[in-house]
Design goal:
This protein is an alpha/beta fold. The protein has two domains: 264 residues, Uncharacterised protein PF07075, DUF1343 (Rossmann fold), CATH 3.40.50; 124 residues, Aspartate Aminotransferase, domain 1. 28% of the residues lie in helices and 14% in strands. It contains 14 helices and 13 strands. It has an eight-stranded mixed β-sheet. It has a three-stranded antiparallel β-sheet with strand order 11-13-12. A hairpin with a 6-residue loop joins strand 4 and strand 5. Helix 4 packs across helix 5, helix 5 crosses helix 6 and helix 8 packs across helix 10. The longest helix has 15 residues. The chain is globular and about 65 Å long. It starts with 10 loop residues before the first helix and ends in an 11-residue tail after the last helix.
Length: 447
């Protein structure tokens, strides 16, 4: 167990000083099963003219306080290119410029700390050329390996600052979970610099089932979780860590100011560094929570194009697919007949027929219902097949890992319609919605 030096001021003393002075107005309390449901500060009240102040991320709030809550402890930073301030300077670069802060290591998730690796890749262990800090490759690291990395670095506090996109199968939220478990076991402090959920606060989709957990879904949350990473951290801490780590982690969340759970990324006015190479714009994030399903099929999900997850198609499709999809009159989206030639991934240098999704109303758009409709209509083509992974003979269908169980696949194979498929998970979605309430930090309609 790594413990703070005896002569170091206690965390609570440091936080108490900062909070008493008003320096860290966005800092949330630690999450525990007894956390009060009403503890939801961080919303910026409307100005006299009725407009809202700009959104300020947790990193911005902490930087405005000169990172006072991070002094007197050895810092390990879990981040990637999205961990930036409003002037696009990276938080690690800003932290490293403060002589009164001690960074002992940086931990890079999938795609790497500086973001140069493609899907399923990382940058390896290296020295960061800008700061000369050691960077540890944490992508795919087991909890045992993470414990080794944290111990090697000498970190006493783990700081997490990564932009999530709101979908269960985005791997960063599982880097959050695993690193929290390890920090709890080692007695380390954990600080999340919170960021908005770019697709809003609405929870939707099926619950992960234990038999189908994987690196794209390790615990029982719904597909579109509708929480910020700070809220997710609180949820993990109250629901999973007491069992998985033996105790909750010593957690603090630096809250976002001005974020509304019914908003979307296009409304935030924040810069958008791509969280991964195939997440180039906020438009991508809006559709990804649904169209990532097509990774589990023999359709291209648009990787290798300039609009991944917005272009979906295959050589065997035709214009009838888009025409039939538009007859569903799905809320907030239109389907444009589209043709594209991927430069990598599926169907390289082959012309794919399909659609481009045009989200016409981000607030009414339902990414998972939309993707289910797309699957139902694609299944009518005789060449459609589910991706089959022979390396996992007990659970060979990737779609089952993405959706959380075989239910979606077997229902569509049996000819179920969109309403029937979507209706199958409504009870578990509602139960998850109720379960997460005590961990939410931001007031307002979860649209």
């Amino acid at each position: 167990m790594t413990l703070p030096p005896k002569n170091m001021p206690s965390r609570r003393a440091l936080l108490g000083t900062a909070l008493a002075s008003g320096a860290v107005a966005g800092l949330g309390a630690a999450a525990s099963p007894a956390a009060a449901a009403g503890e939801a500060g961080g919303a910026t009240p409307p100005s006299p003219d009725g407009s809202s102040a700009p959104v300020r991320t947790g990193a911005e709030v902490a930087a405005a306080a000169s990172w006072s809550m991070l002094r007197g402890t050895k810092l390990g930073i879990f981040s990637n290119p999205t961990g930036i301030l409003s002037d696009t300077r990276h938080v690690v670069d800003d932290l490293a410029a403060h002589d009164d802060l001690e960074i002992v290591g940086v931990f890079g998730p999938e795609h790497g700390f500086r973001g140069s690796a493609q899907a399923g890749g990382s940058e390896g262990d290296t020295l960061d050329p800008r700061t000369s800090l050691p960077v540890y490759d944490a992508y795919g690291a087991s909890q045992t390996k993470l414990a080794t990395l944290f111990g090697k670095s000498g970190a006493e506090t783990i700081v997490f600052d990564i932009q999530d996109v709101g979908a269960r199968f985005y791997t960063y939220i599982w880097a959050l979970y695993d690193s929290m478990v390890v920090a709890a076991r080692l007695g380390l402090r954990y600080v999340v610099l919170d960021r908005p959920n770019p697709i809003g606060g609405r929870a939707d989709g099926a619950l992960m089932t234990p038999g189908y957990t994987s690196g794209v879904g390790k615990k029982e949350i719904v597909q579109q979780h509708g929480m910020t990473v700070g809220e997710l951290a609180r949820f993990y801490n109250g629901e999973f860590l007491p069992t998985d780590a033996g105790r909750p982690v010593d957690l603090d969340v630096v809250k976002v100011h001005g974020w509304r759970p019914d908003s979307r990324a296009q409304e935030h006015g924040l810069p958008w560094p791509p969280p991964s190479p195939n997440m180039p714009t906020p438009d991508t994030a809006l559709v990804y929570a649904g169209t990532c399903f097509f990774e589990g099929t023999n359709l291209s999900e648009g990787r290798g194009t300039t609009r991944p997850f917005e272009f979906v198609g295959a050589p065997y499709l035709d214009y009838h697919w888009g025409d039939r999809l538009n007859t569903h009159r799905l809320p907030g989206v239109e389907f444009r007949e589209a043709y594209f030639v991927p430069t990598f991934n599926k169907y390289v240098n082959q012309t794919c027929a399909g659609v481009q999704l045009h989200v016409t109303n981000p607030r009414t758009y339902q990414p998972i219902r939309t993707a289910v409709a797309m699957l139902v209509e694609a299944k009518k083509y005789t060449d459609f097949v589910w991706r089959y992974d022979s390396y996992d003979p007990q659970r060979p269908y990737w779609i089952d890992k993405l959706s959380g169980s075989p239910r979606l696949r077997t229902m569509i194979d049996a000819g179920a319609g969109v309403d029937e498929v979507v209706g199958a998970w409504q009870d578990e979605r509602a139960a998850f919605e109720a379960r997460r309430q005590r961990y939410l930090l931001y007031p307002g309609r979860r649209g």
